[in-house]
Amino acid sequence: MAVTRTLTPIVNKPSTSDLDNFETEADGLFDNELPTLVDDLNVVISQINSTETNINTKEASATSAALASIAAGNFQGIWTNQTTIAGQSWLFNGVIYRVVIAGNTSPLVSPENWASIAATSDELIALIQDNKDYIDAYIATNALNKGTNTQDPNLATDEYIFTQHANCPNSSFWHIRTQFYTTQSNSSNRAQIAIEHISGGNSPRIYIRNYYANTSTWNAWIRCDNVIATSAEITTGTDTSKQVTPAALKASFGSLMAALALTDVGEYAYLCHATANTAIVAGSNYAGSALRYAGSGETSITGGASGNTVVNSGTAPSGTWQARGTMLATSGFYGMSLFKKIAN
Question: Is 261 left (phi over 0), alpha (psi -120 to 50) or beta?
Answer without folding.
Answer: left
